[in-house]
Amino acid sequence: MSAVWSAARATVKRRKVQTAVIGLVVLCSTTTVLLALALLSAASAPFDRAFGRQHGAHAVAAFDRTRVSDTQLARTAGRPGVQAAAGPYPQATVDVPAQWLWVPSGPLTVVGRSDPAGTVDRIRLLEGRWATGPGEIVVDWPGNGTPGPDKLGTKLTVRGAPAFTVVGFATSMSKSAGAWVAPEQMAALNPSSVQMLYRFTKSSTDRQIRDGLSEVTAGLPPGSLTTTQSYLTLKRAFSAVADTYLPFMTVFGVLGLLVSALIVGNVVSGVVVSGYRHIGVLKALGFTPNQVVTIHLTMVSVPAVAGCVVGTLVGDVLSRPILRDAFSGIETGSASIGVGPWVYAVCLLGMPALVVLAALAPALRAHRLSAARAISAGNAPRTGRGLRIQRGLGGTRLPRAVSLGLGQPFARPGRTLMTLAAIVLGVTTVTLTTGLTSTMVAFGKHGQGNGATRVNVEAGRPGLGQQAPKLSDRQIEARLRSLPGADLVTARALTTVRLAGYTQTAFADFYRGDTEMYDSEIVKGHWPHGPGEAAAAPAFLNQHGLAVGDRITLYLNGRQARVTLVGELVEGHARAVESTWETLAELDPDLRAIEYTVELADGADAEAYGRAVKASDPGLYVLPGDATNTTTTTVVGFSAVFTVLLTVVAALGVFNTVLLNTRERRRDLGMLKSIGMTPRQVTVMTVTSVAGLGAVGGLLGIPLGIAAHRLLVDHVGVVAFPESMKDVWHAPELVPLALAGVAIAVLGALIPARSAARLTIAKVLHNE
């Protein structure tokens, strides 16, 4: 093994270019793969770990206490398929009349529990203590991180009950309640239902959860089960934004792996072919066939390991902003967002293993060669390969340097096919990124309607330290319409509502005014215009199992409104539904708007309009302009990074191919120069040898890139792209894409072509 290591180390030192190519290819590919795996890990593992630590409930079920007794519910813990159960806990839904801290007005689910521990759904205290005395309450903390102690002691007022003092903030991975009090305090809240928490022996699919609930409720009075909530819905909500990025990262990761395997195989194949004489000498000196294979695999493994380590470090740095953006604003509870250790293990062990596997097939060629055949074969292509095609090209009117260059790929068909495949994947990546960029730019502008400038005005809220407006709700809308520059005005009210059949509350936005400005927000159906109409985002529809045309019931302040989903939004919050002011009148006619959107006329000055708003009422606050769409920025930015990485990798594959070809054809180059070929003609011939491959690769890669683009944009769970955002391919955009393959080929061939042009006749033929 000492001799094998010495020979391998000498090969690495002698073949510096191939070593560098392998190292760079593996570095770029490892970075791409780690980003995809990091997002995949963060989209599920943190939730699973936190859910397991807190013994989260697979199903949260609420029962009508007038139909079923606590004794009957307690017996359900022993039903087949139930692993553990907790409850029954008294449950009430109270109404918060005004915005309190981050909670908008609307229903709040309160549950009576004596302590946060238990066999199911262990509540994690983030700040303060558990509620044990009268008038004390613990509130669920929905955001990231932990609340500050300064918020303890604040008062929470609800309709029809004494005010509560907040003594603690907690989080439940099961989202079983919005707040908790001591069981003795529930009588004052008039609980109408009882909560049970279940963990099932089988719970990996929605059907298994439904089957478990069916087993639990078997034998109970009909209609006793009122609402249920599956932990799978919460898990999907947790990873919804991350799932937006996951398809993009996965596609780029797969492309990176394919390109890496092709180029590594090409490099090792070239090393074997160009090193026939060296292989023969090694075998003549006593190296066994297995040792020769080991030498070649070691030569590949050294730069592969180095590139893998550096690529892992680079990918780790790049993954942090992606994860930060992917989970921004998501209720992570006690889940710690990060990259699982298995991701680093897969990259550090899997990438070198993939490289070795890619190198194994060409390395086995060295295993089969006898010493005599290897030494006699030298390193030139076998006689006759591609001669018929080269002669045919020579009979055309093409310049001789061009015809010779076009015929060269046929001398090494295997190497040519691998190089062509790398170019095709490079063009596919460029095409895919071009389409994604166009789609995401259009997506980033979708809220701007016809491109007119919009100004958002918020009514001041004293609870947040702002000055209350002097004007009434309707007066504010009239004043905004009367100010110079205003064209269209809408008002929006926000509250939380209960949905029939679901445990967790939802947000509801109600609009009035010139709502036609939001027509561009709809991808299917239409924007709600009349009473009983609503629209929702794809994430809301997916998580609640709904579609356009379905009907849902909203509950608020003891009232209900039956609404029909008439539209699907391009995007939106997974817990929000959009409806009309007429629907709000059925639920809470006294609720006033909190925000107004003004679309300005052409040529109007947004800053001047903002100053006029502030002068009209100090209690009106002009919100900052629309921030850059972070999803668009992230997808476009990292798609561009991946495209650069994979384009460089594809160009490195071309570079290696041209370098091997020029080394094999040194004798031919010397002969051509001796009969008058100029250095410029040598450069043209060398570049032309791969430019044709680039043109073919461009024609093959474009349809693959278009298909990959369509596949991605059709399978983003939280965004529904309309056809106008998907149809981004037009003739002017396809022309430069057709030249992308040529650009990649020329980029990779230029340096070895110039090196070949500088070779002198004496240096090439000094051994002839």
Describe this structure in words.
It is a single chain. The protein is α+β, with helices and mostly antiparallel strands and 768 residues long. Strands 1, 2, 3, 4, 5, 6, 7, 8, 9 and 10 form a 10-stranded mixed β-sheet that branches. Helix 2 (16-42) packs antiparallel against helix 10 (341-368), helix 2 (16-42) packs antiparallel against helix 19 and helix 7 runs antiparallel to helix 9 (289-326). The longest helix is centred in the middle third of the chain and has 38 residues, at 289-326. The two termini are 37 Å apart.
Describe what is shown at a glance:
The protein has 25 helices and 20 strands. The longest helix is centred in the middle third of the chain and has 38 residues, at 289-326.
